[in-house]
Amino acid sequence: MPKPFHLLVFFLVALCLCTSSNASTSMNKFLETECLNVPATEFIGSLKTTIDAIRKATSVVSQFGGFFHDFRLSNAISDCLDLLDSSADELSWTMSASQNPNAKDNSTGDLSSDLRTWLSAAMVNQQTCIDGFEGTNSMVKTVVSGSLNQITSLVRNLLIMVHPGPNSKSNGTRNGSQKGGGGGGHPGQNRFPVWFKREDRRLLQINGVTANVVVAADGSGNFTRIMDAVETAPDKSMNKYVIYIKKGLYKENVEIKKKKWNLMMIGDGMDVTVISGNRSFIDGWTTFRSATFAVSGRGFIARDITFENTAGPQKHQAVALRSDSDLSVFFRCAIKGYQDSLYTHTMRQFYRECKITGTVDFIFGDGAVLFQNCQILAKQGLPNQKNTITAQGRKDPNQPTGFSIQFCNISADKDLLPSGNSTPTYLGRPWKLYSRTIIMQSYISDAIRPQGWLEWNQDFALDTLYYAEYMNNGPGASLSERVKWPGYHVLNNSAQAVNFTVAQFIEGDFIAAASMINFSDMTMLEFITMFRVMGLVLMVTQGCLAANQKHVDEQCRFTRYSTLCVDTMTGLGSENQKPDILSALINKTILETQLPTSYFTKFTTDLHVDEAQHVNSITGYCEELLSMSLKRLDQSLLALRNSRTKNKHDIQTWISAALTYQQACKDSADSHNFSNGDLMGQISQKMDYLSQLGSNTLALVNRIPVELTHFTKSRRLAKADRVFPEWLSAKDRKLLQVPTVKANAVVAKDGSGNYKTISEAINAASGGRFVIYVKAGVYKEKIRTNKDGITLVGDGKYTTIIVGSDSVNGGSSMPGSATFTVTGDGFMARDIGFQNTAGPRGEQALALYVASDHSVFYRCSIAGYQDTLYALSLRQFYRECDIYGTVDFIFGNAAAVFQSCTLSLRRPSGYNVILASGRSDPGQNTGFSVQNCRIVPSSDFSPVKHSFESYLGRPWKQYSRAIVMESTIDNAIASRGWVEWPGEGGYSKSLYFAEYANVGPGAGTSGRVTWPGFHVIGRDEAAKFTVDRFIAGNYWLPSTGVTFISGLQ
């Protein structure tokens, strides 16, 4: 297509989508003409006729309500009245949007997409009403069907009148032949729809959301029933109304009516907050009304909740979740049932990281629905039954509906696996004549039969359906024996597959989402694919978008990977507006980090069982690390927008942490060899790419000007010689200082507390600071928590002890060997011991793994041998702790300060090394600062300390950084002080190791290494690594109550 025509198309689309609120009346008429295939007056007239027909049909149906004492028939009539009411509303929305395209209340900004979605729903409703009369009085069904079929015909004609957009084919799929696949983004893209507001996306991903009301089964909230909370929400609200549902089993049927807009429900976790029902078709309910949870109000969001129907396979249709909510999102939710588990009835819906289980047609309906990164699991059903995953219900070729399943895992559930997949299971079957389902870039297990798809009834719809597959993997993904139906397609290139991505399939043709986010999302057709993949929102000016290349070049020259920076940013901005390159880079890194589940599952294909288990361990750890990375990237983006100068230290810390997690994944992949040597290489290369993006981002973050008030306040506070870092609240400070604490839970081995294990107490924690008092005793537990605000208080660091013995030599992974793992922020521990007793022969054996920002350990003991303390990332503070080990027994890439601690060398198998900093990028604000500590041999090592070499540290990564200052060093430490990492002598130039004002027989620096990167520093340089300067401790530590030295002594 020639470029002038591109510009013409862009101009027409811009008019059609009403991006200018000052457009004249004649422009609006032109817009309506471009969006319709008929004059606007004809379209409006047909709408009025159809609305009038619905009113008449409603009058007819309502007359049957009191004549029959039949439970099933009464339900069917009730359904019909509700469905007709919904159709009337959807046509009213269509009328309003057609007459006033600039209205924002109920629109995405893409008029064509909105009209087609609403009209399609209005057509589906009549068919659902008719379907509900199955098994009832045939006379009533005949009378009602006559009225409804007339409405369906009228709505079908309306749908034909709406132009599907300049970039669409008549069969309802979009043209992928234009540059970039028609502007929809590459099929490998993995993101939320544009209509999903950025602030709503953050609500899904951050912890500690502020709720309007709280539901708690135990009575600790505002309500004990979910429906009571729903009824408090305002009608047709444009603001998000958040309902937090605490963990528990809620046996109720919830229905969110169409007037309840923008509700958000947040639970405590999939399988923790459970909404359960057992209605079924066999018990007299219509399929529509059998739903445990039904939502019709637009803009609904759910996170961390399970919706289940426990009726069982023998009760046939029994819906767990039914959604008619336009622009709805379900994130980290489970939908559990058997037949007809998930009813995606109508409208645009998005499911992300959900688990969906069932038997027959367990994902069905006629919405425009996209599933990303979901687990779709077939269960064991009735004897001689066949499982079908999808049953899509598109009944007209003009409907913009269908199912797109991308980056998902399609497998057997645990109850089906033992039977050897004996139940025939298929990807789908055509419920209606124009059924449409696409499965792409997903893992398909051998639970799926080789033919892939199943007929509904002989040759029904085999010519008119549209089923397709693209780039799937796994033992069930082979195409050699797939069905040979005319409507089945194998997509061979991204230009075809891109039609079914988020950008194309459920966003419409060019969504101008200025009302949903802070910027307009329109771009020229020439550039839309690039911008979509980058996930950036750009300002639209009167002229064409042009790159401000000079600004890009100027900024990118400060990055380590300048060519990548320029390539990423070229095309941003306009002649009059410079792009925000830093925000753009963070956005780009976020999108590239959102890897699909199928990205990792593909690595286990064709491996031996033992290798597959090993690979699963690595990929599972990488998935966890990337999830942690995304959390920090999102925090950084939010902080950047609030105040980049005030929040600079936070942003540096969080971007540094994201880099650390990528490096940890790469390290895990690089350390293993498999029969297919390319497997881990692919992961390693991907992490290299993400690290380069992160490094460029961090380089620009480090150029943010420092807010001067910070240093003014810091110098003043530094005069107080012994106070805690300021980021600890007054309450937290008291928790660490007072002799007796008021605990939320008590753990005691003898049964005298609330719990006998620490794990049980942590699992009970729910929001805010949660204090757990652990009585004296040895607790043999392996503990892992990602909850924020946990505090553990023991009876003494050698009295209350948490013990484990896992090790790499014993079969664990290095991170998996940890006795105690914490990744939730604000963790505090006092008077507790953490031990790994695997011994020196266990090789790596962690006692403590910490990836908690603003974490504090006070008067604790941390004992092991090799790799005792994994201070992985973020800001950490250790005060008056005893840390024991041999090789690299304090390692990781946190910004960690150790004050007034005792670092005890144990008897090694070879030699001892205390510090192994993993700083991999010069821009990271990480490293280890050891201040006012004692470095001594343990009692078992002291008699033979001169028979072994012991060192202060070695460089684990290229930019390793460690500082030892104002400490007492025993002569167990070799005179050279530091040692090379094996095979990495080149690190001696790029590392930063330093000493300042140490004392003791091992503190002399005359015999120290002469590396370029080793320094004996002065007071001004040493001040950079104090609590105040290095971890911004004056802003968070005072609240913990732990004594600390703010500056130098």
From TrEMBL:
Signal peptide: 1-23
GO molecular function: enzyme inhibitor activity; pectinesterase activity
InterPro entries: Invertase/methylesterase_inhib (IPR035513), Pectin_lyas_fold (IPR012334), Pectin_lyase_fold/virulence (IPR011050), Pectinesterase_Asp_AS (IPR033131), Pectinesterase_cat (IPR000070), Pectinesterase_inhib_dom (IPR006501)
UniProt keyword annotations, A-Z: Aspartyl esterase, Hydrolase, Signal
Keyword Methyltransferase among record annotations: no
Region ranges (Disordered): 165-192
Ranges of compositional bias, category Gly residues: 178-187
Pathways involved: Glycan metabolism; pectin degradation; 2-dehydro-3-deoxy-D-gluconate from pectin: step 1/5
Source taxon at top rank: Eukaryota
Stretches assigned to coiled coil: none
Entry keyword annotation includes ATP-binding: no
Record-annotated active site: D361, D888
Example of a GO biological process term: cell wall modification
Residue span(s) of domain Pectinesterase inhibitor: 26-161, 547-700
Assigned protein family: In the C-terminal section; belongs to the pectinesterase family.
NCBIfam families for this protein: PME_inhib
Stated name of the protein: Pectinesterase inhibitor domain-containing protein
